[in-house]
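Per your request, structure below.
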């Protein structure tokens, strides 16, 4: 769906993972004839290739890197990126090296290939002498609603064999038409690079000196130059991210550079783009749309909701990186006329409508991909943001409006996604703002399961299942299920249930509750219930959704930093199962196993049973209460795993039993309360 994944702005880089730069973030513009071909020429003067590393006598792995150079050059136009390498193929799996490809944005300029050579038995073959590139102009991500204008040139090296060496060198110009000489980026050495020589460099012209920041291992290896720095590693050891640590600790071999002096510089640079785009022409049809909204809705929040719904419903999502649209939004009138737009275009359109309605609002840049953990520890760089939405001031409160979400997602006091940091775009400039983590008050997933076994143990039971899903997953379901007719939905579930325990699927109903912000799916049918025969007429049943797997032990390799915290994946789920017991049985014939309440590794676990009016109900809840746990607490809870109750939830029938099962109202059945509401009895206050 739009918000979680397709708004990321990715651009023209070599198909390697060593370079990530702001100027590469979806750079696009009209394809100029001189820029839609691959040029050939010598390496730039600022490039200093590494010496070749001799091939050792004993080799292993798919390839050996005799040299790999990734170099960045900053000048008055922006950024150029060079990559050169020579690699020896040791295994057939590395023959894909013969599929040489370059992706670039023609708005920035044409790429220049300096070399593509094959070495075999001491002889060199110039591949470029008798070969040419095929230019692919298709939009590879069109199915994902992405129009980025990026071109790809491919050339296949013929007759490539194991034992050959391939040498290549290419430079790509990465000048963003919006940012110009303002640029930022990263150089990194991967966690597990192939054996060989790996070199990184960044250099600059006079007047282009960037801010620099690097991790400890890079600090130890760097060689400073008058207008740059270089790093070289021979056979670097693997350096996996610390096991279980938050993502910010995964930055281990990285060099950052930026021409932005602070985050406010980025805010000031981008704010005018939206301020300009959000101004409507006197003849814009959007002025009439705003008048209609104002006439139909007297309150500011209702007006903002209507404006947001208009953007969500009437403008379909398509990422637009064409015509300089990678960073700059299209005008609202243009977006409205063509009826498609990306996060930038939809945000500008929404800002224009809100302005007409007299509602103050700002665009805000965020990271939908979750790359914002530890953002305050990095140099200012727009590459960390991949999405923009609106923050509106209404009635003394801040509301979040995202035009890329489905129309059921109205203004909210908290963003739909759990952002850690965000950056408002303001004329005065705003720094990044931290969003504190909150313990969720309502489950994102509630599963209800009702078994009506009143007709007896040996008869199929009527079963009703209800799935209540909130958050981004609930919106994904809304997109999926809203496209189906009731008949299609029923047919789909009947086909899916064929061959499993369902005897019949009689009805399937789905709706999205905008007030509860939840997708609600209910399936009704009959099932064969797997009662376990324990002899002498005794029966038992394992309840669905009633047990927990023990939490995994927290730990990391001895050579990794033991002082780092451990990350918890946020989550809050609640499972409720009600069994309406056979009418021929008596309450004293029934029993069930233990409930519990405990907390391990910052997660609250809860299970409780209730017995009333001929029905047994089990509630099982689990919620993460802290996003990170310190190593001392983790070590303590490692010692508690063995005592964790991982038993299944079991109910038992004994014809001669005389169990004193108390009647209780503390455990409501699946139909007794509105489980799509708030303040659900899914947890205890376990410590």
């Amino acid at each position: 769906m739009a918000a979680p994944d397709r708004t990321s702005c990715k651009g023209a880089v070599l198909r390697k993972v060593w370079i990530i730069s702001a100027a590469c973030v979806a750079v696009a513009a009209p394809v100029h004839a001189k820029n839609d071909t691959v040029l050939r020429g010598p390496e730039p003067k600022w490039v200093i290739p590494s010496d070749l590393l001799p091939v050792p006598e004993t080799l292993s792995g798919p390839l050996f890197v005799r040299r790999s150079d990734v170099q960045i050059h900053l000048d008055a136009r922006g950024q150029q990126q060079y990559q050169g390498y020579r690699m020896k193929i040791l295994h057939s799996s590395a023959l894909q090296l013969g599929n040489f490809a370059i992706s670039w944005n023609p708005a920035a300029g044409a790429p220049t290939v300096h070399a593509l050579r094959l070495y075999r038995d001491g002889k060199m073959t110039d591949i470029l002498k008798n070969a040419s590139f095929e230019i692919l102009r298709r939009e590879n991500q069109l199915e994902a609603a992405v129009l980025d204008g990026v071109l790809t040139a491919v050339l296949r090296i013929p007759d490539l064999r194991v034992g050959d060496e391939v040498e290549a060198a290419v430079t790509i110009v990465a000048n963003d038409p919006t940012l110009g000489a303002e640029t930022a980026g990263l150089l990194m050495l991967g966690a597990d690079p192939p054996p060989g020589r790996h070199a990184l460099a960044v250099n600059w012209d006079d007047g282009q000196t960037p801010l620099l920041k690097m991790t400890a291992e890079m600090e130890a290896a760097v060689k400073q130059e008058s207008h740059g720095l270089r790093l070289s590693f021979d056979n670097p050891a693997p350096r996996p991210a610390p096991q279980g640590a938050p993502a910010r600790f995964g930055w281990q071999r990285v060099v950052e550079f930026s021409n932005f002096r602070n985050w406010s510089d980025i805010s000031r640079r981008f704010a005018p783009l939206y301020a300009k785009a959000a101004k409507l022409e006197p003849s814009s049809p959007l002025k009439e749309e705003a008048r209609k909204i104002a006439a139909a809705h007297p309150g500011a929040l209702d007006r903002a909701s209507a404006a947001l719904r208009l953007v969500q419903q009437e403008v379909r999502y398509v990422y637009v990186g064409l015509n300089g649209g990678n960073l700059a939004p299209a005008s609202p009138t243009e977006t409205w006329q063509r009826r498609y737009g990306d996060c930038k275009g939809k945000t500008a359109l929404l800002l224009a409508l809100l302005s007409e309605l007299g509602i103050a609002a700002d665009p805000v840049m965020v990271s939908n991909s979750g790359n914002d953990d530890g953002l305050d520890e990095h140099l200012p760089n727009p590459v960390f943001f991949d999405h923009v939405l609106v923050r509106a001031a209404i009635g003394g409160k801040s509301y979040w409006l995202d035009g890329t979400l489905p129309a059921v997602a109205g203004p909210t006091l908290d963003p739909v996604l759990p952002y850690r940091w965000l950056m408002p775009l303001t004329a005065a400039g705003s720094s990044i703002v931290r969003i504190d983590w909150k313990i969720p008050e309502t489950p994102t997933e509630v599963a209800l399961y009702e078994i009506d076994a009143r007709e007896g143990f040996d008869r199929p039971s009527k079963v009703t299942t209800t799935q209540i899903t909130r958050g981004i997953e609930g919106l994904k379901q809304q997109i999926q299920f809203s496209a189906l007719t009731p008949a299609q939905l029923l047919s789909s579930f009947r086909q899916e249930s064929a061959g499993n325990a369902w005897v019949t699927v009689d009805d399937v109903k789905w709706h999205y509750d905008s007030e509860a912000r939840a997708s609600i799916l209910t399936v009704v049918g009959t099932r064969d219930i797997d009662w376990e025969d324990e002899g002498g007429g005794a029966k038992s049943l394992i309840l669905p959704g009633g047990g927990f797997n023990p939490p995994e032990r927290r730990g990391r390799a001895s050579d990794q930093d033991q002082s780092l915290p451990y990350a918890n994946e946020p989550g809050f789920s609640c499972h409720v199962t009600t069994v309406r017991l056979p009418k021929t049985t008596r309450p004293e014939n029934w029993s069930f196993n233990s409930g519990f309440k405990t907390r391990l590794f910052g997660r609250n676990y809860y299970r409780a049973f209730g017995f009333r009016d001929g029905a047994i109900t089990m509630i099982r809840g689990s919620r993460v209460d802290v996003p990170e746990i310190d190593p001392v607490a983790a070590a303590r809870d490692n010692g508690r795993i063995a005592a964790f109750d991982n038993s299944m939830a079991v109910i038992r029938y004994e014809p001669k039993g005389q169990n004193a099962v108390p009647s209780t109202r503390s455990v409501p059945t699946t139909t007794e309360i509105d489980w799509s509401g708030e303040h659900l009895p899914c947890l205890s206050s376990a410590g």
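The chain has three domains: 14-259, 265-434, 445-551+568-653.

Regards,
D.
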